[in-house]
Amino acid sequence: MLIPVLVLTALGIVFGLGLGWAAIRFRVQSDPLVDRIDALLPQTQCGQCNYPGCRPYAEAISKEEADINQCPPGGDAGIRALADLLGREPKPLNPENGEEKPKTVVVIDEQRCIGCTLCIQACPVDAIVGAAKLMHTVIESECTGCDLCLPPCPVDCIDIVEVKTDVLCWRSPRPSIVQNPVTQ
Amino acid sequence: MSRGSHPIIRSSLLLGAIALMGTALLASVNDLTRERIIEQEKRRVLQQLNAVIPAASYNNDLLGDVIEVDDETFFQHPAPVTVYRARMDGKAVAAMMIVTAPDGYNGDIRLLAGIDISGKILGVRVVSHKETPGLGDPIELEKSDWVRGFANRSLQNPDSKGWAVKRDGGQFDQFTGATISPRAVVKAVHRALLYFAANSQELFDTPAKTVNADG
Amino acid sequence: MSQADQVEQARQAGRRTHHFHGGLRLRHNKKISCQNPVVPPPLPELLVVPLLQHAGDFAEPSVSDGEKVLKGQVIGQCQPCAAIHSPVSGVVEAIEDRPMSHPSGQPGPCVVIRPDGQEQWVQLNPIKDWLEASPEILIAQIQDCGIAGLGGAVFPTHAKTRDGRERQIHTLILNGAECEPYISCDEMLMREQPDKIILGARVLRRALGAERVIIAIEDQMGAVQAALTRSAKLAECKSISVVKVTTIYPEGGERQLIQVLTGLEVPAGGRPSDLGMVCQNVATAAAVADAVVEGKPLIERYITVTGNGVSHPRNFLALIGTPVSHLVDASGGYSNDVARLVIGGPMMGYPVASDDTPVVKASNCLLALTQRDIVAPQPEMPCIRCGECARVCPATLLPQQLHLQIKTGLWDQAKEYGLSACIECGCCDYVCPSHIPLVEWFRYGKGEQRKRVLESEAAELARKRFEEREARLLRVKRERAEKMALRKQLLKDKAAQQDRIRDSIARAESRLKKAGEQPDDA
Amino acid sequence: MANGKLKQILTDGAWRQNTGLVVLLGLCPLLAVTNTVVNGLALGLATMLTLMVSNLSVSLMRGFLRPEIRIPAFVLIIASVVTVIELLMHAFFYDLYRVLGIFIPLIVTNCAIIGRAEAFASRNKPLPSLIDGFATGLGFCITLVLLGTLRELSGRGTLFSGAEMLLGEWGRAITLTMIPEHPGFLLAMLPPGAFFGLALLIATRKAWESRKTGKQQRAASVMVADEGPAR
Amino acid sequence: MTRSFDTGGAPHLPPQTTVAAVMLQVLLALVPGVLAYTWFFGPGMLIQIILAVVFALLFEALMLRWRGWPLKPFINDYSAVVTAVLFALCIPPLAPWWISCIAMLFAIVFAKHLYGGLGQNVFNPAMVGYVVVLISFPQVMTAWLPPLALADYSPGLMDSLATIFTGQIPVAGGWDAATQATPLDTLKTGVDAGRMVPEIRSAPIFGDYGGLGWEWIANWFALGGIFLLYKRTINWHVPVAVIGSVVLLSLPFWLADPDSNPFPLQHIFSGALVLAAFFIATDPVSGCVSNRGRLIFGAGVGITTLIIRRWGGYPDGVAFAVLLMNMAAPLIDRYTRPRMYGE
Amino acid sequence: MSEHLLILVSTVLANNFVLVRFLGLCPFMGVSNKLEGAMGMAVATAFVLTLSSVSSYLLHQYLLTPLKLEYLSTLSFILVIAVTVQLTEMFMRKSSPVLYRVLGIFLPLITSNCAVLGVALLNVQEHHNLLQSALYGFGAAAGFGIVLVLFAAMRERLTAADVPLPFKGAPIGLVTAGMMALAFMGFKGLANL
Ligand SMILES: Cc1cc2nc3c(=O)[nH]c(=O)nc-3n(C[C@H](O)[C@H](O)[C@H](O)COP(=O)(O)O)c2cc1C
Ligand SMILES: Cc1cc2nc3c(=O)[nH]c(=O)nc-3n(C[C@H](O)[C@H](O)[C@H](O)COP(=O)(O)O)c2cc1C
Ligand SMILES: Cc1cc2nc3c(=O)[nH]c(=O)nc-3n(C[C@H](O)[C@H](O)[C@H](O)COP(=O)(O)O)c2cc1C
Ligand SMILES: Cc1cc2nc3c(=O)[nH]c(=O)nc-3n(C[C@H](O)[C@H](O)[C@H](O)CO)c2cc1C
Ligand code: SF4
Ligand code: SF4
Ligand code: SF4
Ligand code: SF4
Ligand code: FES
User: Using a CB cutoff of 8 Å and minimum separation of 24, what contacts does D120-125 make?
Assistant: First the structure.
């Protein structure tokens, strides 16, 4: 009776010491998972996921605090990419967070703008330039279309426009279903 | 105590404590069950043996009265043959031989053959085999009664020509689609009989030797 | 093979022909459109000249509504790419969105011109002494005349030439292989205007600084070789050779042609100039000759109107901007059972929904097909991995795998499997027993890949700016906090000082009091 | 404890987060011992017992355990419990012990057990933990029995064969021959049959669940199908 | 005049071939072998083919219905028929009717439609069906009658029908009397029992190279295979690799010890090796896509077959070898992408 | 020699740990969605399994048996395994950060892989000696790794397949595993060389 107790207790203590030492000696540093999740998010920084930007959302996902279906700009493709990365089943976008929309940008109606700078403060990517009391402009190539600048504008001078699609940025469509009797 | 090592020591002590409790529990349960476990192990072997030889027909400690014989050329297999000897009041009654048939379809077939002192078979059981399920496995008692057909046979019944499957001109049935497995069993039992006939004296006279009871 | 060996082998181009992987032997179907000499069709009532005809951006219109234009006058400017010229003299009726012969079928800005029938040319500036002129001048002339590759890709010729010059090419290949069934415009051109092609070849050779010129033609092109050789001899040009290559689709693709001529492969992601070669279409060469020697801009081209869907298939020398319906009328109209109208050949061409699209620089063929030619659309079945597609793929890709990867969105794998190396020749599509529209998938996949690159660039930019902003806000906040703390500290200090003052005052007072009391007590 | 929460724990463990069918843990015993109902049931009960005891003890100790030794401590606790069960089975259910063999000690590595200890017991009070252990064990047990039924029935046409190992001699009586003259479908008893059987169970469960939550699921399926062939 | 035209995709040429045509070609190529088979083993085989085809189409239709797919294009693609015929060629001609039923259930439902149907299965459906019944019903699956030339009993059409549907064989002594071990089985058990190959081979059931009759059947299958090669329905890589690897691997064994190892030709002309080399291992769906991959795949099939024949528990390992290589095919594909143009 | 070969053939093919003996199924199903991951898992498992097989053998042979504490084998083996895994992790992190980045995430999963404890227990059951234990552990891991990698490659192909909805994901994975087991039935009898 005594021997087994002694033996295993000794084992336990030794292992405990070892593991405790290991845990302190090799604490896990920054989580590369967050980077990889963040890389899959569209970086619109719109906050529709209920986090203040894409990176915080990525952190929340990696801690399993947020589900993977909360980013409307990323849409189904984004969710699938996340599901793939995390080895989960894809699921439809959570409608509470919004819905997937075509990409837009905003323009400021320069006639009506009073130069209040409120939109500049709201823009998460510094895509609006202008100084106080002077007319503001959106740098189209940097606008992510997050629409965060709309609510603060006191004179509603910011309009959403769809990103121009002309022949130049035309892409071949996904081969259609119609030809395929299999699916009719 | 430095700031870093304090929790380490604490957690290792805690782990030790858990180990201590666990082991204490285990040790006591082990104490409680040890006897019964040994008992059970014995009972299983006995059960197997008793399927061949009725418990009433002997009164020695069957499991303690064991020898192993090695005759690779005769048995055509390197594995030693274990022989349990049944005695009634010290008088030899029967021998249970665990022999191996080397020529099964998928390798060895281990058999228990009980032979009484007159050379008559008390019974045969397959201990382990790898024959194709559904084809060669009717040699098991669970699958068919075929193996009961050995009871009461002896070297004279049938004669040595008859100790073969029917397809080879003998007296034992083969199975539909499978001749190899029954052939192997018949041959092995026959060999056991021959060996017993030739060596029965020594078989009973050799002093016992403890072997692993595990079949 | 070492670099030097490769260059050496490339210099041997045309000595003997080699093979490329895969390819198809297709029914030729060219004879029907080669019976008659090439003529210009009657002048159409309206010409519609799209402002997007080259690889690159839209041209800026340089004329306005109602303006009168002369034949050959620049009507669209596009800096890095080539200019667009008026094909006739007449009046600009409108500048508006019209169908413009684009695979998308989408309309785009076009200059609509009503010809006045005068055929009045703008002042032309030929380079008469082109043999003396510097290559830069030649290249500039090519650019001013709006020459672009007429072999299909309409890549601006001046850019290609300049690049070739810079990269020290030794061989100019003139591509007369015209491998697609039905199309015969290059063949007719080589038959009828061999001198012009040879002239163009000499100009281009000079502009490029190439040592020699190989004109590659199909071995089924009857008299063409003799005609070209004779013209070359007349021009006393020894550096031009005419090579026949086996007729097997798509030996006209520049990479395949180079493989046939040299046995070498253009490196993946590279260009022919990596092997010291440049490939131009024969019609491009003819256009260059016109441009340099006569000063004429590119306003017309040979086009084949053919197929069972038209009554009299033939070739035309059509003005850019001529509506294709006009060409069909000129070749006797449609047959009754016409079903599909294709711009380009049967393998690589794209169908158009209506015939009011114009001829553009890229249009080499108008193919009118009947129901019989195309058979009812076949049901698409799942891929059975039979490998036919891989067997015929001239780029030695695995189309079935690419198809699957695109379908499932495995973009990284698709890239690894060489999606971008697909030349969209359609061989795989043609042989697929499951009738999978493979090329459509590959075009979609390429577009999607392009989009993904753009998106990830945009996302990267947004991420960077977001992070910068966060950092800035943080810094501002910290600075503000520090300032606050400082101020607080100051306030506190002040308060403490005041406390101390108050204390000492109180102490003083109490002392005073005491002192005051003492005298009282005393 | 509120009734609702209790119910929640029970349904979660036994059905919604069923270890074998949903979380896909503890697959080895699930596939290895389910050639008959009785084997499955026996191992299921043993696992259930282990889960309950380990959950309870972990919950009781949850205050003391530092993160770095949490897992080793759980493992120790579980291993002790399992060994006790093994010893008891060796002594009192000898035939079962032989049939289940190495899969009794392997209960230790059934990830579901550590999983529950980590995810539930180390964060909850003893009673809910005990119930959670019971529910999870029950879910596992149900799966084992279902798969056992499927395989035994299709493989030999019987049910509860070998019940005497669990219940003693009178158990022989409850062995049911459901399909007399069953020719024996060996595949069901062999490894491939185990995999196929579990696949069918999970697919059936999925189909059932998706019928229940029809609309939401259909949306998901549209999304998934979009990935599939052009259609 | 504006007209509107249809805008189907390129290429704008009539399609060259269809899936159904490919499958029909395979079926056509099987005809000589099937006829030879009937010649040597009686009409049972034809009945088995019909049975298997009926069950295969039945399950195919059921699955298509369940999945909401149109029946017509998929029933008409004949792929299920190919599966069924290839399966039927592997089983004893007098096997009971339900063998086909169970095998086709596993082949068509499990191995094919659960994976998404035509073209998407990872495993060869016919071989899955065969292996399932082989391991489940070994007794039935090893009940081969000897070729007609050796048989005391040669069943006619009606007898075969009766046997297949009742399971009773009209022979005194029942199945035991009528059936006989196949050449490969005889060889295997003989070698295991320590007998010499030449001695074993002197049994009447052996022919010049393989089994009596079997070798001729194999020849006719090879003829069909060559037709497929000529038609470019299959590539040479797989058949050459299968047969080549068997020869190369068995030759040294035979040279070293001709008494306990059969001559390479013996290996090739017994069992299902030729059939497999031309018709089964060449299944495009479950095989490899690149030529290099096909060579590896074929060699794998050959080598694994030999290993199983020589050391394993089954007299012929072709079916298992094909399934094992099916397993490896996706991995092989990953590592045998051909060099692309300019790379 | 041939006896050792036999152990390898048996553990890798005829009695493959995953497909025939049903050990290590959770990581088999769980870490097989991506080929790279599967390869990492295979390598990491091979290492740990061999190591822990040997160390648990030593523990059993030189500590438990002499003290007649065989009933503690499960308990002590699992401890040994946990520590082996931890030490491997530490060692790898220290000596090869690159390797650690690739394999690190799989290491903790190995502790709860039945195959590891299974090998330790089977070593005892089958009375292996030191070399045999090592081979047995390595063979088991090789068998596990091979089928895992093959399985992962197949599952990657399956992502493109049009699997009926209820069978998407785990069920078709299990069907595939069943098919693999079916194919491995062909190796039956191979271990009786
Ligand atoms: C896969 C397979 C497994 C077999 N397994 C066995 C077996 O386990 N036992 C046996 O006696 N015969 C087995 N056989 C059958 C033998 O190979 C041989 O055909 C038979 O024993 C000859 O018997 P017969 O002469 O009665 O036909 C098996 C055959 C095959 C194809
Ligand atoms: C400097 C230079 C740059 C080129 N860049 C491109 C390019 O970006 N994209 C392109 O499609 N072709 C480019 N080309 C032209 C190709 O080499 C090739 O001639 C052209 O794509 C037409 O080939 P194709 O009709 O066979 O597709 C370039 C050529 C030169 C000389
Ligand atoms: C599949 C394919 C087929 C082609 N066939 C021809 C052809 O028959 N004739 C031709 O001039 N260019 C053909 N091209 C275009 C050539 O690759 C190349 O772009 C052209 O010869 C370059 O000349 P250009 O810049 O003068 O157009 C083909 C391209 C591809 C991808
Ligand atoms: C050359 C060739 C060989 C084939 N071999 C098989 C085969 O061995 N087994 C089978 O089930 N189907 C075979 N098929 C048919 C078809 O590919 C098969 O049913 C698919 O696996 C079903 O998706 C073959 C088809 C062709 C063209
Ligand atoms: S919802 Fe907006 S902020 Fe959130 S992750 Fe998506 S794009 Fe970024
Ligand atoms: S400009 Fe407005 S919409 Fe665009 S990124 Fe900034 S805040 Fe978002
Ligand atoms: S030709 Fe069609 S069916 Fe054949 S492999 Fe290629 S894509 Fe698949
Ligand atoms: S279209 Fe692309 S993939 Fe198809 S054959 Fe041509 S180059 Fe190859
Ligand atoms: S139960 Fe065996 S690995 Fe999880």
Answer: D120/D55, D121/D54, D121/D55, D121/D56, D121/D58, D121/D59, D121/D62, D122/D58, D122/D59, D122/D62, D122/D65, D122/D70, D122/D74, D123/D62, D124/D59, D125/D59
